[in-house]
Amino acid sequence: MEQRLFIKAIRPADEAKFLCKAINAVGMAETSCRVTVLETLRDYPLEEQIQEAPLSDGTAPAFTEALPGSVALPEGQSLLLRCSLTGEPIPTVEWNKTPGQLRDTVKTTFDGHVAHLELQEAIPEDTGCYRAVARNPVGQASCACQVAVASTGEGPRVMKALKDMDVNAGAGPIKLECVIVGVPEPEVIWYHDGAPVKESDTVRLEFQGDQCTLVLQPVRREDAGQYCCSAVSPRGLCSTECQLRVKATAAPVFLEPLRDVTLPSGTRAELFARVTSDEVPFLAWYKDGRSVSPGADYQITHDGGGVRLVIPEAFVEDDGLYEVEASNSGGRTRSSCRLKVTPPVVDKIVPVTAPDLTVAKPCLVMARSLPPELHVQAGTRVSLCASVAGTSNSLQAKWFRGSGEPIADSPDFRLSKAREMVVPDQGGPLVPATSFTLSIAEAFPEDSGVIWLRVEGPGDTSAASRTHLLVLDEDENREQAAQAARDVK
């Protein structure tokens, strides 16, 4: 089907953009064009021109080379119009455009004979009728050119949008990525909660082809919020947004605390603990409150959550309280143990005496005692375990707080009993023993203090062990927690 629109005796008032739409039950299609009406110079009889010409010395402007009738060019290309003229005195040349006005970037020159108009990177809005008007005291003349700039670009468009993310504080690198296309290439700006994003030690902006990336390394709590990637060009603008949620990091937790070790002088000592953390923790060792550094005397390793301090050859002077501290952005936790190094045994002559036939009263022996002191962060799980030599069914355990308050089995305080082979505190081979464990699901500062274990056996036999539990609050320093424990005791 062919359709036509006829305009008879077209006038400047008919200049406009015409649109043709075709619609049916399936859809719609349209096409458009712009009609520009060029002014036609009237032809006057020679006699009439002579009569109307003012009586003056010189000649009126005349174009020896007029502007071309029309010029068509694609968007982004430069436009150059040129015309030549004569006149005495030398005329002035002015340029104008209809519809609209000349852009500020238009450059015009005239050397007295040749006039130029130059426009860099033309856009569709530059379409129109360009006219050069020459004037001097004798008269004036003009010529015009119809310029049509065809659009070849497209506005910015999001091809791959940003996605919401949930991350832990301290993690990284974290990348927010999107893909934006457009011709000409748009200018891209990132925003965080409405403010432009600037690069820093922890923030990096990357642009590779159409891909736009914002990199955070590491992620901080203040990095949480709404991120927007905006693109703008002469053809339009677009944007994509996402939400970044940053979760607070929990303090490290010792899944397996340090245990007391007793060994003879000159032997190898190994202290071991297992720790878990949301991010890689910073580890530090202490002996009797003083920092321990790796070297020939101390070998320190951290592998897969296991932390070790090895003394290749321990002597009496290595005896003391050892602590390992694990810290991250969420807090810090300590575990401690006692290393006891016994002096070497000196052989001596022992006189032979008659055997003592007195029957000794039976007693219970602690094969493995509670740690002297245990430091934990508030909110962590605590496990206290001690073992009594022997596996008698009649062994019964009772747990107490420092004030003598019994601790009963409950969801918060779980009491358990098991038979196992253990290494005695004094060292030596494995021995059969009965182990008693108190598990605190979640420790709080009010749980700080002395905790007792009393094991009773047959014939009024018994054994006991105790520990100082220190639960540190985030805002409470180590000295305050220790004082609180002593007050409870």
UniProtKB/TrEMBL annotation:
Keyword Ribonucleoprotein (UniProt): no
User: What are the BP-aspect GO terms?
Assistant: positive regulation of locomotion; positive regulation of sarcomere organization; positive regulation of striated muscle contraction
Please tell me one Gene Ontology term that the record gives under cellular component: cytoplasm
Q: Which Pfam families does the annotation name?
A: I-set
Signal sequence coordinates: none
Q: Which SMART domains match?
A: IG (SM00409), IGc2 (SM00408)
User: InterPro entries from the entry?
Assistant: Ig-like_dom (IPR007110), Ig-like_dom_sf (IPR036179), Ig-like_fold (IPR013783), Ig_I-set (IPR013098), Ig_sub (IPR003599), Ig_sub2 (IPR003598)
Chief subcellular site?
cytoplasm
The places in or outside the cell where this protein is found are:
Cytoplasm
The entry's keywords: Cytoplasm, Disulfide bond, Immunoglobulin domain
Q: Give start and end of each Ig-like domain.
A: 61-150, 156-231, 252-342
Name by which UniProt lists this protein: Cellular protein
Provide the species name: Ornithodoros moubata (Soft tick)
